[in-house]
Amino acid sequence: MASDDLAALLDWYGHMGVDEAILDAPVDRFRAAPPPVRPADAARGAAHATRPVPGARRPPPAGLTARPPSPAPSRPQARFAPSAPDEAVMAARAEADGAGDLAALEAALARFEGCALKATARNLCFYRGAPKARLMLIGEAPGRDEDLQGKPFVGRAGQLLDRMLAAIDLGEADVHITNIVYWRPPGNRTPTPQEALACRPFLERQIALVAPEIVLLLGGAAAKQIFDTRDGIMRLRGKWRTLEMGGRRLRAMATLHPAYLLRTPIAKRHAWRDLLAVRAALDAGAQEG
Ligand code: URA
C-alpha cells in the first residue's frame, strides 16, 4: 500500500475512533465464524485434498516459496443483522423484561446481540451511581474514557457532571447515571435511532428497577429520543414533562449536555437554572407541577 494511502487509512481510523491497538494481531469482528463443517462435506473435502482438481492451483516447484493462497473472496457477514431492527427490539424486550434486578439486566445486555454498537466497543457501559435513586440521569452514549472503564460519564464531561451535581448537594450515591445506548459509537458519533431503539427496552426496564422520581436528560440526543421529538435542546431544556416509562409516571426535564458546557461555558447559567429546578423538585418530593 502506498504511504499516502496508508496515511489516509490511519487518518480515517482516527476519525472512526480506532485510536489504539488492543491486541497484537488484528481481529475482524464483523466476520462470521465459518459455518460448521458437516461430516459428509469433511469427508468429501479430504478426498479432494488427495486428488488433484482440474484447474486448481499447483504447488510451486521445489525451491520456490509461494504466498499462502488467499481465501476465496466472500462477502463478510455481519454478526448483527442491520436489516432487522424490529427483531432486535423484540429480542431486547424479551431479554429485558425477564430481568429481576440490575445484575440480571446487565447480564442480559452482555448477551444481547441486537445493537450493532457492541461489535466495535470494548466494554459495556451500564450505569454509575446508586442502584435505587430518586434522580436518574440519562446521557447520549459512552465516549472513549467510558468505553475503556466500562462506566458512563467518567471522562471530562462526567467530571463536570459530578461538579454540577455536587453544587446541588448530590453525590454519586444519590443518583443513577446511564445513557440511551450502552456501547460507544465509533468515532463518538451520535447513536442512530435504530441503535437507541434496540437499547430502549433495557432502558425502560432499568427505569422500572431504579424507580426514580425524576429523570434528567443530558443533551439533545437523549432528549429527542426519550421525548420522541425533533425539537432542539434549546427549546426542550428547562421544562418539566410527564414521562410514562418502565411502567412508571415520572417527572422529566432535559438540560444541556456537560460536554457542550465544556465547549460553551457561557451556557452553564442555563444548566444551573435547570439544576436548581431539579433540586427544588427533589426537596418538594417530586410531586407533579
Ligand atoms: N457523554 C455521554 O453522553 N455519556 C457518557 O457516558 C459520556 C459522555
Helix and strand arrangement:
Elements: H1 3-15, H2 39-50, H3 85-97, H4 102-111, E1 128-129, E2 135-139, H5 144-149, H6 156-167, E3 175-179, H7 193-210, E4 214-218, H8 220-227, H9 233-236, E5 241-245, E6 248-255, H10 258-263, H11 268-283
Parallel strand pairs: 2-3, 2-4, 4-6
Antiparallel strand pairs: 1-3, 5-6
This protein binds uracil.
What does this entry look like structurally?
- It is built from eleven helices and six strands.
- It has one domain: Uracil-DNA glycosylase-like domain (Uracil-DNA Glycosylase, subunit E), CATH 3.40.470.
- With 289 residues, it is α/β, with parallel strands linked by helices.
- Bound molecules: uracil (URA).
Strand order of the largest sheet: 1-3-2-4-6-5
Overall number of strands: 6
Inertia-based shape: globular
Backbone CA Rg: 25 Å
Any key phrases for this structure?
alpha/beta; 289 residues; 10% strand; 6 strands; Uracil-DNA Glycosylase, subunit E; binds uracil
Give a brief description.
The protein is built from 11 helices and 6 strands. The protein has helices at residues 3-15, 39-50, 85-97, 102-111, 144-149, 156-167, 193-210, 220-227, 233-236, 258-263, 268-283, and strands spanning 128-129, 135-139, 175-179, 214-218, 241-245, 248-255. The protein has a 6-stranded mixed sheet.
